[in-house]
Every structure is written in C-alpha cells, then in structure tokens.
Amino acid sequence: MKDSEHPFFRPLWRRVAIVAVCVIWSIIEFATGTPFWGMIALGFAGYAVWQFFYLYKPADEGKAPADEPKTSEPKAGAEPKE
Predict the structure, then answer these.
(1) In angstroms, rounded to a whole number, what is the distance separating the alpha carbons of residues 56 and 34?
(2) Under a CB-based contact definition with an 8 Å cutoff, are residues 51 and 14 in contact?
(3) What sign results for the dihedral spanned by CA atoms 52, 55, 61, 62?
(4) pTM value?
(5) Fewer C-beta neighbours within 10 Å, C or N terminus of the chain?
(6) Are 26 and 42 in contact (CB under 8 A)?
C-alpha cells in the first residue's frame, strides 16, 4: 500500500481539504510578498491533486487475500461441521 492509499485518505472531503489548505497557504504566501514559499505551497497542492485525484485508487476492503481461495469447502485437516 502506498501512503496516498492509506485509509485516512479514503473520504473525499479529506483529500479536498488537503488540497484546499495547500492552495490557501499558497495564496497567503503570495499576498504577503513571499513568492518562493508561495510556489512551494502551490507545488504541494499540485502534487496532492496528482496523488489524490489522478492516481488515487482506494484499497478494496471486501477483497479476499490472494492466497486464500473463496470456497466453502473445509481446509485439509479440518474437522467437518455437523
């Protein structure tokens, strides 16, 4: 799992809030006359958009692990249920 696919980022509002905070931070930096930090914050916002909206694929919670087959047959050595 990549960091951008962490369960914390699953709700859309959190991903939007992170991008919004970076854009607002950028605007504040430009407004106060520090364009270097404004560009840094704008870069963070661009990277967040790339990671959270373009490349984002949420982890499927309902998927069974690949090593466990989806069968109703008992495993070898297990006692049958009656």
Answers:
(1) 31
(2) no
(3) positive
(4) 0.65
(5) C
(6) yes
Q: State the Rg of the chain over Cα.
A: 22
Alpha-carbon distance of 46 to 7, in angstroms, equals 21
Per-residue pLDDT tens digits for 11-43? 889 989 999 999 999 999 999 999 999 999 999
At 69, the amino acid letter reads P
Which of 37, 44, 53 lies closest to 22, judged by CA?
44
For 36-56, b/e burial (b = at least 16 CB within 10 A) is eebeebbebbeebbebbeeeb
